[in-house]
Structures are given as structure tokens and as C-alpha cells.
Amino acid sequence: MEIIEVRPIQPIQLFKAEHRRTISVYEKTDGNPKLVIWLKTEKERNDVMRRMRIKNTVLDVGEKNERNLSFYLNSDSKEEDVDLQMIHLFNYLSDLFNNKTITVLIRPFRIATSHFLFSNLQFETCTFFKILGKETDILSNKDTSQLLKALNPTVGITLKCFVEKGFGSRNLLSLPRLLITNAQWLTFEDLLNMDCETANLRYHSFTEEDVKKFINHWMDGSNPKLMHLRLMGFKLVPNWEHILEGIEYRVWDEKEKKKRPRNFKVHFTYKTEEIDCKNGLDFERKSDGMIGTVMHQSDQIDFFVWHDIQF
User: Fold this and answer.
1) Which run of H or of E encompasses 127?
2) Per-residue pLDDT tens digits for 251-265
3) Of 25, 161, 174, residue with least CA distance to 106
4) Running DSSP on this structure, what letter comes out for residue 238?
5) Which InterPro entries does its entry note (predicted)?
6) Domain termination site, one of 120, 150, 172
């Protein structure tokens, strides 16, 4: 009898946008999907190379890319019909790979109509979700709360969309990873009180003076879990002498590798990024010897904290 090897995989990714509805499978050692199943209507049917069957479901294999499979529904299918098929396919894949962990990518307008999907999906853990929006998409507090309640992510959230006036879902700040592209609603108090390990903020209202105050608060012991804070929107090189006033700092020296390595590793769900910190300015927190580094590159300020995981 032939033994089929089932390789370990990353969390199964579910994607719901305007026209794209997919389920993707990633191997543990690869950041590129090994399998993508597209859920389409009959009018979107393309030429296929061959067909395969999963239980009672027939899938078309893509002619250009054998890793792409397509499942076709009737042209008049409702969103709940699509969600039902997505549930069936996820349940099959999660049993096959023995992995009931998910990540979710979704457009804001799909959140309110996805209650059936998230109520019936037999997943155990959601590591993160990403909300992707166009200029016409406005994310509300209600939609955010609904998604947090349904998925209860354990690792992080990405908000790449506009938010409604008065947006203030501050329970997001307790998650380990956070990326917000429209972060003007965040205050300096939010920055100090966030419990994140990694935070990437764009279109915010923070200034160099806020960076100075934040570093001084960190030197006094605030944000103990923080590993990496990135603030976009600083096109000019900051006045480091002013920002680090009263703090003893130095340029990184390769001869002192025991202090901290040259590259900072940022671990994502499907990949790892290394950031070259050769040009960073280092300083030490006296209370525990923790090394902090600030650096300017392109249009962003990076603040790194060198926990043991980096060595």
C-alpha cells in the first residue's frame, strides 16, 4: 500500500474580497502557497487542464498553474452558498493536514455578511486577520468588534483601510502584532499603554517630540513586551541629538556583537524579514540592561528592542 506523506503546513488562509474568495495552503518552510482553491461562479469559468474530485466536490486544475484549483458555483449563488462551500473545503483540508488554525483576509464590506461563515467554520485558532480596503471602504467599530468576537485572533491584526470618524477599537492594542495604515485615531497614551510586541503605524499624528517622550518612558520601564515599533511618515532625518538628549548612546560597533547582532529578525506567519541595523543608534536601559536601537531609513523611524530571541 502506498504511503502518502502529509507535510506540516502553516495556518490555512481564507481570503474574502469583492471578487476573490480563496483558501490557500502554505508549507512550514515556504512563504509561497502550495495550493490555492478559488471559489467562482460559472460565468468566471476559464479553460482548464483537467479536473479532480474531493469527496463530492469537483475542482478544475488551472492550465497555467497546477497549484491553482477552481470550484464553480451557479451564477445566481448567494454569498451564503459560497461560504458553505468554503466551510466544506476548509474542513476537508484541515482534516487532511491535521491543522485547524486559520488566518483571514477580508474586505470591510464582507464582514457584516460573513456571520454564517465564521459561525460554522470548524477552526480551533485564528492567528491573525487582515482587513483590506479601498478608498470607498470605511471600517466601523461595529465591524471590528464583530470580527474580533468571531475570530478572537491570538497573534495580530492588520488594518489596511480607512476607519470611520470616532473609531476607537483600543482592544486591538493588546495583541502581540499590529499594523495600522490609518492610525490618526491613536493617541500618545495609546502608544504608551499598548501591549504589542510589534507595531507598524502609518498616517499617524506622532512627532519627533512624541518619539523622544516614548523612548524616555521606555527607559523608565514602559512597554516591557515591545520588540519593534515602526512609525512611517518621517521623510527627513530626525534630530537624534534632541530626541536622545540625556541618554548615553553610541553607533553600532561590529566588534561588540555580544551587545546585539547587526540584523533584527521580524517573524511573520508565512515569512521572516531581516532588517539591517548597522546604522542604528544604541542605548541601554539601566534597570535591566536591555538594548534599544533607533534608526531612520526611507521615510520611517524604527525602534528596536533586543530581547533574547534575537540572539
Assistant:
1) strand 125-132
2) 988 877 667 899 999
3) 161
4) P
5) F-box_Sdz-33
6) 172
